[in-house]
Amino acid sequence: MRIFSLLPLLFVATAACDYITVPSRGDAGPDSLASQWEQVDAGPTNFNAVAGSATDNVFVVGDEGTILHWDGTALLPEASGTTANLRGVAVASDTLTYAVGEQGTILRRQNGVWSADVPVTNAVLNAVWADDASAAAVGEQGVALAFAGGVWTIIPNPRTDNYYAITNSNDGLDIVGSLGVVSHVDITAGSISAVSLPGYTKLLAGATRWATGAYFVGVEGGFFFWAAGTATQVEGLPEVFLHGVSVADGDVWVVGNQGFVAKLPGGQNPTIIPTPDQRWLVSVYAASSSDLWIVGRSGAILRGPPGVRVVGDGGMR
């Protein structure tokens, strides 16, 4: 018996008549686990990142300045004021969100309105972290920016690694990217220090905080728990390019190429969760153990997980 419903999502988002709908489930059988994901058709846009602060405050960003906001009832486009491809998003609180992207683009959302911060670089920015008082953004060729005291500044960095993800832990901020390098950022001091993961020189693409440390994911099923400057590799994932990672209620979720999704309770013993999608999945936000958002290339947006949410819980409206 199916306990997860795909409820229609169809609405006029703006006066220009933009439509976001739930399409058919393709080849997934009606009783298969894969068929029980909610699929959102928001057009062919590449969606590059998803983040939130609660189950009713989730943001998706993508190419050509695309921003979507889930308010608990509807997934609506928001005017970004830019056509730059947006690569990263960080939700500091219910009232403060940042997005970053190509051409050094930095956007800030306050009181429901997006505005652009004055750029301090023209480099591609791939990821951003933020709290109520400060923020940091990182990108290609070793670019790292700090926001403190109302001003963005460039952090001097002797390395030229491409950075793809940033997260906080008890030790501060850590960024990951090329060659299995983990770099620690001190916003107050405006400094960066780097250390390589032993035995892993491949690209790391995703990072998220957990308890006293953080999880990192990357190429060929790379999955690490990082704490106090030490990395512990977790085995058992297939050699898939993992792009995104998120944690809720002790469950770790990772996503990657060709529709790959896996769940690791407590960060161990991965279980692959089938999806109806073969596109690259690049970012995941676990709002709770029963409310998961996944985005990716060519318009991929999935909401789940399957077999957990119950009929009548609201679904996608």
Which properties best describe this structure?
four-stranded antiparallel β-sheet, Methylamine Dehydrogenase, Chain H, 317 residues, disordered C terminus, globular, mainly beta, single chain, disordered N terminus
- Low-confidence stretches are 1-28, 309-317
Average of per-residue pLDDT values: 87
Instruction: Tell me the domain tally.
Output: 1
Instruction: Give the beta-strand count.
Output: 30
Secondary-structure content class: mainly beta
How does the overall form come out from the CA principal axes? globular
* CATH architecture type: 7 Propeller
Distance between the termini: 23 Å
Most strands sheet: 4 strands, antiparallel
- Major sheet strand order: 3-30-29-28
**CATH fold topology:** Methylamine Dehydrogenase, Chain H
Number of H/I helices? 0
Q: Which CATH C-level class is it?
A: Mainly Beta
Strand-residue proportion: over 45%
Q: Helical amount among residues, as a percent range?
A: under 10%
Subunit organisation of the chains: single chain
What do we call the CATH homologous superfamily? YVTN repeat-like/Quinoprotein amine dehydrogenase
Give helix and strand order, one letter per element, not per position: EEEEEEEEEEEEEEEEEEEEEEEEEEEEEE
What is the CA-based Rg, rounded?
Answer: 19 Å
Question: What does this protein structure show overall?
Answer:
This protein has strands at residues 10-12, 19-21, 38-39, 47-54, 57-62, 67-70, 75-77, 86-93, 96-101, 106-110, 113-116, 125-130, 135-139, 144-148, 151-154, 163-169, 172-177, 181-186, 191-196, 204-210, 213-218, 223-227, 230-233, 242-248, 251-256, 260-265, 271-272, 281-288, 291-296, 301-304. The protein starts with 9 loop residues before the first strand and ends in a 13-residue tail after the last strand. It is mainly β and 317 residues long. Strand 20 (204-210) and strand 21 (213-218) form a beta hairpin. The strands form eight sheets. It has a four-stranded antiparallel beta sheet, with no helix packed on it. The chain has a four-stranded antiparallel beta sheet with strand order 4-5-6-7, with no helix packed on it. A four-stranded antiparallel beta sheet has the order 8-9-10-11, with no helix packed on it. It is globular and about 50 Å long. It has one domain (10-304): YVTN repeat-like/Quinoprotein amine dehydrogenase (Methylamine Dehydrogenase, Chain H). It is 0% helix and 50% strand. The chain has no helices and 30 strands.
